[in-house]
C-alpha cells in the first residue's frame, strides 16, 4: 500500500474500550459461560471447561450431583467452586414453585451462594420458556435474595419486565435448546440489547463457533452453551473454538463493522492514481 492509500486517522472513531464483563457485581475475564451436561464423564467435563476459558459453569441441579446425593461422585470434585463460579440452574422445571424450591436447595448446597440461572419450561418438546411462570418465579427469587439470571423468550417486552423485577441478567434464546440452529431472530436480540441496562447473554441454540461470534457481534454481553460443545465430535477442540469465537466477536463489535452497501467500493482510493 502506498502512503497516500493509508486511511486518514483523523476520520477514525476513537477506539471503544471493553468495559469488562460483570454479573451481580463480580467481574469475569471470559464472556463465555458453559454447561456441564452431556459429557462422557467428569474428566471430559473438566477438560472442556478448562479449554473454554470460562469463569462461570452452569449446573442443572435436577440432573447433576453437587452434594445432594452423598454416595455418588460430585461434579464439584471436578469443577471446584474455589476456581469457578457455579451457576445452579432449574433445567427440567415446569412451574414457578418447582424452580424456586430447586434453587433454594442449591443455595443450601452451595453455602448460601445467591447467583442462579432461572429457567421454567413450557413443554418437553420445544423446551421453550413458560414466560408467565418465569415471571412469577423471578419475582419470588429476587425477593428471597437471589441474583437471578433468567432464560427467556426473545421478546423485548418480556426482557424489560424481567429487568424491572430485578434480574441481574436476561438470557434470551437464539433458537430452541440443543437445536444448534443458531440465531434465528437477530432483530429481536438487537432490540433487547439496545434497551437493556443489565447484561444480555444468548442462551440456547448455538451450534458452532460462527453462531457465538454473531451473537457477540450483535452486542451481546456473553454466550451460554452446553450441547454445542458437549455434543461435538471433539468437545475439547470445540470448547477452544468457542472461546476464540466469543473473543473475536467481541473485538469485532468494539471495532465497528463497515456498513453494508449495494455497490462495490474499491479498497484503494481512486485519487492520485499514476494512470
Automatic annotation (TrEMBL):
Pathway participation: Cofactor biosynthesis; thiamine diphosphate biosynthesis
EC code(s) of this entry: 2.8.1.10
Residues annotated as domain Thiazole synthase ThiG: 22-269
Places the protein is found: Cytoplasm
Binding site for 1-deoxy-D-xylulose 5-phosphate: 178, 204-205, 226-227
Pfam families linked to this entry: ThiG
Keyword presence, Cytoplasm: yes
Top-level EC class as recorded in UniProt: transferase
InterPro entries: Aldolase_TIM, Thiazole_synthase_ThiG, ThiG
Catalytic site positions: 117
Catalysis performed (reactions): [ThiS sulfur-carrier protein]-C-terminal-Gly-aminoethanethioate + 2-iminoacetate + 1-deoxy-D-xylulose 5-phosphate = [ThiS sulfur-carrier protein]-C-terminal Gly-Gly + 2-[(2R,5Z)-2-carboxy-4-methylthiazol-5(2H)-ylidene]ethyl phosphate + 2 H2O + H(+)
Keywords, sorted A to Z: Cytoplasm, Schiff base, Thiamine biosynthesis, Transferase
Keyword Protein biosynthesis set for record: no
Function: Catalyzes the rearrangement of 1-deoxy-D-xylulose 5-phosphate (DXP) to produce the thiazole phosphate moiety of thiamine. Sulfur is provided by the thiocarboxylate moiety of the carrier protein ThiS. In vitro, sulfur can be provided by H(2)S.
Subunit composition and interactions: Homotetramer. Forms heterodimers with either ThiH or ThiS.
Family statement drawn from the similarity comment of this UniProt entry: Belongs to the ThiG family.
Protein name, per record: Thiazole synthase
Gene it is expressed from: thiG
